[in-house]
Amino acid sequence: MTRLLTATDVARIVAAKGLRATFDELAAVIEADLRRWPQFEKTARLASHSSVGVIELMPVADASRYGFKYVNGHPGNPALGLPTVMAFGALADVATGLPLLVADLTLATALRTAATSALAARVLARPDARSMALVGNGAQSEFQALAFHLLLGIDEVRLYDPDALATARLRRHLDAVAPALRHLRCASAQEALAGADIVTTLTADKHRATIVAPSMLEPGMHFNAVGGDCPGKTEFDPAVLRTARVFVEYEAQTRIEGESQQMPSGYPVTELWQVLTHTTCGRQHRDEITLFDSVGFALEDFSALAWLAWAAADAGVGHELDLIPTLDDPKNLFGLLEAAGAAAGPLLPRHQERK
Amino acid sequence: MTRLLTATDVARIVAAKGLRATFDELAAVIEADLRRWPQFEKTARLASHSSVGVIELMPVADASRYGFKYVNGHPGNPALGLPTVMAFGALADVATGLPLLVADLTLATALRTAATSALAARVLARPDARSMALVGNGAQSEFQALAFHLLLGIDEVRLYDPDALATARLRRHLDAVAPALRHLRCASAQEALAGADIVTTLTADKHRATIVAPSMLEPGMHFNAVGGDCPGKTEFDPAVLRTARVFVEYEAQTRIEGESQQMPSGYPVTELWQVLTHTTCGRQHRDEITLFDSVGFALEDFSALAWLAWAAADAGVGHELDLIPTLDDPKNLFGLLEAAGAAAGPLLPRHQERK
User: Fold this and answer.
1) A131 lies within 8 A of chain B by CB
2) Which residues of B are known catalytic residues?
3) Does any CB of chain B come closer than 8 Å to the CB of residue A94?
4) pLDDT, tens digit, for every residue of A281-300?
5) Which DSSP symbol is given to B146?
6) Which CATH number does the domain housing residue A52 bear?
7) Average pLDDT of the residues in A118-146
8) Cross-chain Cβ contact A6/B169 below 8 Å
9) In which domain, by residue range, is A161 found?
């Protein structure tokens, strides 16, 4: 039997735990998996592009578990009443191929992205960072603000989105769940960045934009570049990348999809797992400008699936179902039809048979 | 909402229709999709190999639908009480990325493989073919025997499997559902092949085997080579391939996975869709030896998913569920947590908050 978690199930698991425990646990699982990076079989995701969006499959495996995520990106979806990003995935047993869990990953994608951003900022931002600019106040913005508040101690977020309603919704949510987190609405990205220690960019347009220009840089800033995650979709002036030390999840994928797609192939980038394992250093001095060119890697979803499997079993949430057949005799697949046919009538009525 | 079909649901759909209607409809959908081959975005499947098996993702898309299958191949599974091959997949809307259907594809994989085999034999085997050898009597053997009986008029199957119990199970099933189909058990593959018009090989061992040697060839035979579908897993002596005209589903994939992996890259193969669209000819004369080097291509699963979506809606079978979130405001993903949190307690209890 395979456990199925709907979006409602996942929301129940997270709500029952609370956001602090959720982010703490999820960040711990992601960090532990990133630290054993060489144990994973990795591949850049497989994308199918259309004129209005992209659909991707993101598989990854270690010696015992195989995970994959299905995820789309359709910036025009909200106008149709659908989320821009929707995702689900599965975790399977490498030894048998049995799918153990199928789960909504829409909420988990927002949670794991924010947890990974905060993990990276822990080793890349100045330790005394307290103020964060958040440019792009869409569906993932609450998760970023709260992950940085809870995991890093950010106590002020400087918000900008051309859609004032989006910013208003974000502020209402922050008031409701995190009254100690100050927030203010800025009139432009530039105003949001002024004085911020950390800058998170989280815009959804599928084209080359310049949210961050060199004139906005301040010494010691850490950039958490989340929105640029597709070929042709970027948020930074390439001059910013030349000024910053650039960190990525998985170089082979980020060079295609991230801000780094704007840079020549020899441009140096450092994979985050190397910093987490102390193979290389993170921030080197107070004034260094660091940039986490985050595109979202399959391993983060693998961690989220493993965490969901554990949390769902622990909380007794979800539905056990025969997504694949349960057979008394594993070589007797046809028996499934016999059993169903006994109720429905003969599988091959006499008049249907060949003479 | 996404429709979910469990293995039991799929079996109910097939049993209610009966096998003739199932094979007729499925073959028609697969043929129609193969005939519009250039409309699909195709890619070789993405495989993850371990020492005991393989797990694969198989995506394909046209301008309106995106489909993928998850499938494993673990020859040691039956000893653990699990099927060798298990599969599930999803069909999504290209315009929005919304997953419309998630379904067991274990049964559908057996059905679509058999339907595709029969489709190929219609244009490649001699029109008066009546006898088929079936070497390998495992989980998929009933489906192959019945598809050839129902779609092609095969009235005799010559069976061989080193596991006599597997052959006995197959014969029992054929007696139960297709009494007009004669069957006999042979003592070897060679005996099964003797006098057969069509030869279907369907063995599961993950290594290079020689089920079919040049000495067994007879003029005009059609080979339906189904078992060799992985790098390192073949069933034919390469000399047989040199003697036969070889047809494949998708050349880029078959050259890696099929019997054709044994041949040099320039060795000529013809894609089946070209025969179905009359771009090239199938069988050229009575004595020609033809070989369908079938490995299973994503498009066949796409067709099966489309057929299942239609058949499930038609029969009112399946479960509508929120595999991805249903949001009043598509930009308000956090609202899911608020709604769940209202029941579970505050998302961020006061004592958890940062000061």
Assistant:
1) no
2) 229
3) yes
4) 999 999 999 999 999 999 99
5) H
6) 3.30.1780.10
7) 97
8) no
9) 114-297
